[in-house]
Amino acid sequence: METRIALVIGNANYQSAPLRNPRNDARAIASVLQRLNFVVLSGLDLNRDSMEDKLSDFETRISQADVALIYYAGHGLQVNGQNYLIPVDAEIRQEIHLKRRAFSLDELLAIMSRRARSSLIFLDACRDNPFARTLLSSMRPGTRSTIATRSGLAEVRASRGSFVAFATAPDNVAGDGSGINSPFTEALLAHIETPAISISDLMIEVRKQVLKATGDQQEPWDQSSLRERFCFNPSNVISTPDTVFEAAPRPIPVAEPILADVTNDESRSTEIGVVQPTKMFLTLLALVVGVGLTAIPLSFLVSLFMK
After folding, report:
1. Which domains occur in the chain, in start order?
2. Against a cut of 0.90, is the pTM above it?
């Protein structure tokens, strides 16, 4: 069985822009991944230090993993085409803060691709957030042109053997949802345990469900460089007929009876009119094995012993 390790993070309690669903989303995803034979590391509302610890533990564990997975729900930020995952206590007021107080998605993906055979990332982090606005507003007017920020997250070039899924298309904003889970995570939960469905076909089903739920306003996006087919639930679907007919039992072969030779040949031992003992025993044994004792006519048994 392949080794599967997952890191699941749900950050919701941001000081400046709290979110409603990431904690629920992370708990639900962690639960389903455990059922799908993943060793799951999880964290909720992680600050900078806690998030660093979780990521370090994850990076160590995946060195011998067949499949490494990160699911992240929370705020993310793109600057100059690079994506960053934001801890709940982050204050991003200068560009240097991105490296010190946030986590580069590209760096995480590069580490995963080097250590695991297959790397999977699911990001429900394209929500509108104030971090880009705060960063721009805190910079001097003459330096703002050096920073390019856009809504949502930037397109990612999938590294070797990797798969990246976003809650919505690049440079777009995903909704937090009105239910207990976001539209993206709700769709993912609905289809991830489908037997034998590939991860690519899974995302097609997720995309259709999210588009329907959001009135075509949010379209999940993915990019893959996987080198082999991956299924979360690889069980084969075996259809069974409505009616099962049992085959008729094979007939038990019946040995042909060995007829006793009871001629009056004087050279034979017929002194008291009884068949030779050895021959009689073999005859009876063959009949019992072939057809069963109760199936032998009584008259025939008597004839073995009487002239």
Report:
1. 4-224 (3.40.50.1460), 242-307 (no CATH)
2. no
